[in-house]
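Same chain as my last thread, 255 residues:
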Amino acid sequence: MKMRQLESEQYFTTLQRIVQKVQEKLTQYLDTTNEENVHDVRTSIRRLESAWRIMPKKLREKPKIRDFVVAYKELFKTNSQIRDFDVISKRISSNSTILELIESKKKKKMILARRRAEHASSMRFPRLTVKDISSEKLERRFNKVTYRLVERIHMLIPKAVENEKNVSELHELRKNCKKLRYLLELVDDSTSSDFVNHLKQVQDSLGAIHDIDITVDFLHKLPRKYKVDMLVKSEYDLRSVLYQKFVQEYRSFKL
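reply #2:
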């Protein structure tokens, strides 16, 4: 994969848009904390983190910038747990007893998420100008992070496609594909659109597998009185089908 160019003026404009968007989505989230707004604020935080990750170190570690991003990352972490509970609830919707347990756990996370969201909303991103961002340093950092992600993906793929039981490798591959996708979206380059779309396709396939993995993991941790053996078997059967689909997609996808 060829490296892309990223000019400081283009990046500055994109960064402003991302910061504005994440604050807008947070306001909507605080107003109505439903599944859609949880998803939207999580997506906007991913884009914020990608933009922050490629800043030159001196700028990236400025306290006001770092603290702003960290506040949103903490919210993302808690919302990820809430999102997992929503996924599990949908997958086992026929079992009212387990659904009650999930709802109880979710409510506790919602309290923490609300607190972290309010903290993030109090943060202000520092005023920057295009002069604060050197094109040379920015491009060097962008290429370094991109290359590192591509390298990680290449390292993970062999284990991910050789055995469906390599859960951690599949999960890490999904996360790195997602990071690479959001990173490349920072570059206004039409030649990358097919590649980004294919990354999203692989990411979605791995995401469907991951949803089953978190569901099975949750079910395995329940006391035996919940009798989840049939649920687990059903999830594993579907997972095998989805895994084979992912392997076939990978064979047509060259990074």
